[in-house]
């Protein structure tokens, strides 16, 4: 995505701890970008808002005249065709916004949290990819703690590659079945390695 920087693609199955990992990278001095947050900001733009409102029934996706992310998610995860339509609309715009954020930042390490990194064919956009991992039972328990029903969780799981496939495609797999401090140490090691490597190239 950008020369002179390490641009890390951060992904993982649902409830694997991607948001936590992104926060930990930021604490180590990296630029952290959430693709979901970028997507949410784009949904407030009038042009996109109008196109999505015309595609979906306003009654099903709006709350007080605003796009309701939970309602929209329920719509698209219940229909592969609608999900693909929305992804085709949003993904190019998300990538453009992320590229702009990275190139305008002075940070030499950028981390982009992207739940559908491999599904969207974005692996080649990054210096390397990091995938969080945890046992299936742990992932499900975490997801249900968020207040999702089992059916909602399974619908989201089906919209993604199997965790094992994500792990196989990633350059680095970080086990996140333990305590947050354990993940913090792993991320600290990655950032230290990248900084030391960058300093070595300057000598």
Describe this structure in words.
The protein is an alpha/beta fold. The protein has a single domain (6-202), classed as 3-Layer(aba) Sandwich (Rossmann fold), CATH 3.40.50. It has helices at 18-27, 35-42, 46-55, 58-61, 69-77, 80-103, 136-145, 150-158, 163-169, 180-202, and strands at 6-11, 31-34, 62-63, 66-67, 109-113, 128-133, 172-175. The strands form two sheets. A five-stranded parallel beta sheet has the order 2-5-1-6-7, with helices on both faces. The protein has a two-stranded antiparallel sheet with strand order 3-4. Helix 2 crosses helix 6. It is globular, with a radius of gyration of 18 Å. The model has no long low-confidence stretch (mean pLDDT 91).
Give the total of domains.
1
CATH structural architecture: 3-Layer(aba) Sandwich
Nearest-integer average pLDDT: 91
Termini Cα gap: 25 Å
Which range best describes the helical content: under 10%, 10-25%, 25-40%, 40-55%, 55-70% or over 70%?
Answer: 55-70%
Low-confidence stretches: none
What's the arrangement of strands in the largest beta sheet? 2-5-1-6-7
Q: How many separate helices?
A: 10
The CATH topology label is Rossmann fold
From the spread of the alpha carbons, the general shape counts as globular
CATH superfamily: P-loop containing nucleotide triphosphate hydrolases
Number of DSSP strand runs: 7
CATH classification, class level:
Alpha Beta
